[in-house]
Specification:
The chain is mainly β and about 120 residues long. Helix content is about 0%, strand content about 50%. Strands 2, 4, 5, 6, 9, 10 and 11 form a 7-stranded mixed beta sheet that branches. Strands 1-3-8-7 form a 4-stranded antiparallel beta sheet, with no helix packed on it. About 30% of the residues are buried. The model has no long low-confidence stretch (mean pLDDT about 95).
């Protein structure tokens, strides 16, 4: 059974940093593309960034490029390092997994497994 569990969310002041974690289980980690998405109240879930199953490449939404970084370790965990956060980064953040994909996956419709989400609130 595949499980994704996000953690690390919370309240942070604008300009500060936060690191989100996504612990995965029940999957063949090295072949899973991973993505981060976020959803603010009343808005659609939007792409934040992704890392290839191979770990060789990443991609980011323009709104977070240069501020957020995705990485993965050898213990089945993916991270989203958030620096220089802004109030508009406030949202519920979700991680997602796409099996058997060594490449980047940018479309949320292609992801098969999702975490429960973690709230990030940025105060001004």
């Amino acid at each position: 059974q595949v499980q994704l569990v996000e953690s690390g969310g919370g309240l942070v002041q604008a300009g500060g940093s936060l690191r989100l974690s996504c612990a995965t289980s029940g999957i063949t980690y090295s072949t899973y593309a991973m993505g981060w998405f976020r959803q603010a109240p009343g808005k659609e879930r939007q792409f934040v960034g992704a890392i290839a199953g191979s770990g060789a490449s990443t991609s980011y939404a323009d709104s977070v490029k240069g501020r957020f970084t995705i990485s993965r370790d050898t213990k089945n965990t993916v991270y989203l390092q958030m620096n220089s956060v802004k109030p508009e980064d406030t949202a519920v953040y979700y991680c997602a997994a796409k099996p058997r994909s060594p490449f980047l996956v940018l479309s949320k419709s292609l992801y098969e497994y999702w975490g429960q989400g973690t709230q990030v609130t940025v105060s001004s």
